[in-house]
Write a structure and sequence with these properties.
The complex is a heterodimer. By secondary structure, chain A is mostly beta strands. Chain A has a domain of about 140 residues. Helices cover about 10% and strands about 55% of the residues of chain A. Chain A has an 8-stranded antiparallel barrel with strand order 1-3-6-7-9-12-13-14. A two-stranded antiparallel sheet of chain A has the order 10-11. In chain A, a hairpin with a 2-residue loop joins strand 12 and strand 13. The longest helix of chain A is centred in the N-terminal third of the chain and has 15 residues. Chain A is elongated, with a radius of gyration of 21 Å. The two termini of chain A are about 25 Å apart. Chain B is an alpha/beta fold. Chain B is globular and about 70 Å long. In chain B, helix 2 packs across helix 5. In chain B, strand 4 and strand 5 form a beta hairpin. The longest helix of chain B is centred in the C-terminal third of the chain and has 30 residues. Chain B has one domain: Collagenase (Catalytic Domain). Chain B contains 7 helices and 5 strands, in the order H-E-H-H-E-E-H-E-E-H-H-H. In chain B, about 35% of the residues lie in helices and about 15% in strands. Classes of the chains: A mainly beta, B alpha/beta. At the A-B interface, helix 1, strand 1, strand 7, strand 9 and strand 10 of A face helix 1, helix 6 and helix 7 of B. Bound molecules: zinc ion. Zinc ion binds next to helix 5 of chain B.
Chain lengths: ~200, ~250
């Protein structure tokens, strides 16, 4: 009796909230890589708040683990590689995160969720090859343009929060690489996704 | 949706990956085969009171701190070498213009590597201590760090970048901070890629594989273990919450 009552409450809560059991999300995002002062975007080399922009497509799925915890794997990939004005290399980004998270607050009025977990980041730098002529201050020099394709793999730890309304979800992920060392870098991802399935 | 598109267009600068290699013709140049790159300093002609080894140790940090690169750069020892060597020779050159061909009034330092196959096997970094206006003793500490870090970039195997924000841009004159651009990060990551599934320490540390008393785990297993360690407390917490809720629920 008690458990049945609890289940009903839980079900009522879950459908009105952010994580929704067995629902699938698809969306787009702005992924600011090496942000929060790790890099510069100015000629004075002043550290920048924003990092380098990437525009991944996101896929996400929610599984209920327990009363109010969810496992919510999310895959992001940049269909358009980050590219050069000189086109010396193209950089693609793949980010997979396996967070567990919780809906925030109670009742139908709450739209917020939060999550955190480990992730995997893979970048591919594909050089264009050939040579290019660049200034060296007092004249010009010919430089070789990278000609190989190189893969980088790092482990990340991230925390995220999102606001949900109707079938839309707007989220912010804070993603750390090299968390336990001086290599530490923070990136953030600002995303919009649309929910398919899982009820209202 | 309109909100999102407005936001994206605001964030859309023309980001370039414009780094090049320190070679005039070899697109397959890979820098040093060993990702631990070291420097020996010949202080014979260096300005008195200028701690060149200390400046090198300070300047290389920006390269060492790139999360997606495994490169590890350090000062090694003093040397009497004045030419290409491994570790790279750093030498204060009085006849800077005559030896490098670079204008001693504009160029404070120059660096070159000796290639063999697609790898660097020797390096030489000249600091300008000539009578010219670009003598290193005429620069402040921040500028010296920027200059040295830029030359270290050449020793690592990078050429110039066409991005003004990059440390590897040919003109360091406007730089007031020692900060890498994404272009520099792409460059050093390309030459010395970090792969935390293939030997490089996870999350930049020796968390699960640095202990000599433990057998080396395969890195895939290390990853799984780390995930488990992260998820376990959460599962326990979730179970606990569930049982407490059940317990306090009135019969
Ligand atoms: Zn240069």
């Amino acid at each position: 009796m008690a458990r049945g009552f609890l289940f009903l409450i839980f079900f009522g809560v879950s459908v009105a909230h952010a994580f929704v059991e067995k629902s699938f999300y698809m969306g787009i995002s702005y992924y600011s890589q090496n942000a929060l002062g790790k890099t510069t975007a100015s000629a004075t080399s002043a550290p920048s708040f924003l990092g380098s922009p990437n525009y991944p497509v996101n896929l996400k799925y929610d599984w209920r683990l327990s009363l109010d915890w969810y496992l919510s794997p999310q895959l992001s990939y940049t269909p358009m590689a980050r590219s050069a004005s000189g086109d010396s290399a193209k950089v693609t980004l793949l980010y997979f995160v396996l967070p567990i998270g919780q809906n925030l607050g109670f009742g139908a009025g709450s739209h917020w969720d939060w999550s955190f977990g480990p992730g995997y980041i893979q970048s591919t730098i594909k050089g264009a090859g050939g040579t290019t002529v660049l200034s060296n201050g007092t004249g010009t020099s010919t430089f070789a343009v990278p000609g190989e394709s190189v893969t980088l793999q790092t482990i990340s730890l991230s925390g995220a929060g999102a606001y949900n309304f109707g079938k839309s979800r707007i989220g912010v992920d804070l993603i750390f690489e090299g968390l336990l060392s001086s290599k530490r870098a923070a990136s953030f991802m600002f995303s919009y996704a649309y929910r398919f399935g899982g009820g209202m | 949706m309109r909100f999102i598109f407005v936001t994206l267009s605001v964030f859309l600068p023309n980001m370039a990956a414009a780094f090049t290699l320190n070679s005039s013709n070899d697109s397959l140049f890979r820098g040093w085969q060993n990702s631990e790159v070291t420097f020996n300093v010949n202080t014979a002609n260096c300005p008195t009171g200028m701690d060149i080894p200390g400046l090198i140790e300070e300047a290389v940090k920006v390269w060492n701190n790139v999360p997606t690169s495994r490169v590890k750069i350090s000062y090694n020892s003093s040397t009497s070498s004045t030419t290409f060597a491994s570790p790279t020779t750093v030498y204060c050159e009085t006849n800077f213009q005559g030896v490098t061909g670079a204008d001693q009034d504009y160029v404070p330092a120059a660096a070159a590597v000796q290639p063999s196959g697609h790898y660097a096997i020797g390096g030489l970094l000249y600091l300008n201590v000539s009578g010219g206006q670009a003598n290193i003793s005429l620069y402040d500490r921040t500028s010296l760090l920027v200059i040295i870090a830029h030359e270290v970039g050449h020793i690592l195997g990078l050429g110039h970048s066409q991005e003004p924000s990059a440390l590897m841009y040919y003109n360091a004159g406007g730089k007031q901070h020692l900060t890498l651009g994404q272009d520099d990060i792409d460059g050093v990551s390309y030459l010395y890629p970090r792969n935390e599934f293939n030997g490089d320490k996870m999350m930049g540390c020796g968390l699960l594989r640095n202990s000599s008393s433990l057998p080396r785990h395969p890195s895939g297993g290390t990853f799984a273990m780390l995930m488990l360690l992260l998820l376990l407390p959460l599962f326990v917490y979730a179970r606990l919450r569930f049982s407490v809720s059940s317990f306090i629920d009135p019969p």
